[in-house]
TrEMBL record:
Pfam families: MipA (PF06629). It comes from the Bacteria. This is Outer membrane scaffolding protein for murein synthesis, MipA/OmpV family. It is found in: Cell outer membrane. InterPro entries: MipA. The keyword Membrane applies.
Length: 289
């Protein structure tokens, strides 16, 4: 049932079988015309780097939202909010994903633990707007799994970095029973030169203040990321909703000039202030109604 698939996948990214399964006694019920007319709200706590590339971590609140109004889906992915402008017909197993999105980027706009990086100064929160396009389908390995391929393109409208970020993503999720859902996502970020310069370059003035070497970062692929999730219903089931507990774990590896930045791994004989290996975790509770 697509309602089951989308329910679990939305939990994953908001933060993220065999034929024998379909014959099991606890197999999900058949689709209904109102199955997707639900809303999911979740709250939790995350453990993440203080900025992308940092080796300092901190706890922060995490949230997610997903809903469907009149056949149109809206959903969150970490700090981004999406609206799918392609109406989802009842009973269709493959659908087009296309619509607007907005993302809020908080890198180095809040508490910076590293005393050297702190000397470079804080940045304003960036508001990035753009859109996404993709395709989703269910029934690849069992009747109730769901896969999605999507590309997001956003551009900063606040002047914080004035750049563009492109994110291709592959997602897959499947129920293990009527109450348990697991999924995975593989994604990468390509960032423009303006983005790289703002977050990962060090100019002469910054070098003088911090003692870091002057560094000019070029745009390119910033990272590649693998995300895993699990969702366990506490009341109700995946098709009808209720209370659930979710967990998300993610690993990303920074690439290219972003990895070599003095704020991350560094270059040559200079040891950077951060780490190209980035870890993220979140746990929380969600309610679907």
């Amino acid at each position: 049932m697509k309602a089951i698939a989308i329910f679990g996948a939305a939990l994953a990214a908001s933060l993220l079988g065999t034929s024998a399964y379909a014959q099991a006694a606890d197999a999900p019920p058949p689709p209904t015309s109102t199955a997707n007319q639900t809303t999911t709200i979740g709250l939790g706590v995350s453990y993440a780097p203080t900025y992308e590339g940092s080796d300092d971590y901190s706890l922060a609140p995490a949230g997610l939202v997903r809903g469907n109004v009149g056949g149109f889906n809206f959903f969150s992915r970490a700090t981004a909010l999406y609206f799918d402008a392609a109406r989802e017909p009842d009973g269709q197993t493959t659908d087009l994903l296309i619509g607007p999105m907005v993302n809020f980027r908080f890198d180095r706009s809040r508490s910076i633990k590293d005393p050297v990086v702190r000397l470079l100064g804080k940045l304003d929160t960036a508001v990035e707007v753009g859109g996404f396009v993709g395709v989703g389908t269910m029934g690849l390995l069992n009747p109730y799994d769901y896969a999605q391929a999507r590309v997001d393109i956003v551009h900063d409208i606040t002047g914080t970095h004035g750049g563009t970020v492109v994110t291709p993503t592959l997602e897959y999720g499947t129920p293990l029973s009527t109450t348990t859902y697991v999924g995975a996502a593989l994604s990468a970020d390509w960032a423009s030169g303006d983005f790289a310069d703002t977050y990962y370059s060090v100019d002469a003035a910054g070098a003088l203040r911090s003692g870091l070497p002057v560094y000019d970062a070029d745009g390119g692929f910033k990272n590649i990321r693998l995300t895993l999730l699990g969702n366990q219903m506490v009341t109700g089931n995946l098709a009808e909703g209720g209370w659930s507990i979710f967990g998300v774990a993610s690993y990303s590896r920074m690439l290219g000039d972003f990895k070599r930045s003095p704020l991350v791994d560094g270059f040559g004989a200079f040891a950077g202030r951060g780490d190209a290996d980035q870890w993220f975790g979140a746990i929380g509770i969600a309610y679907t109604f």
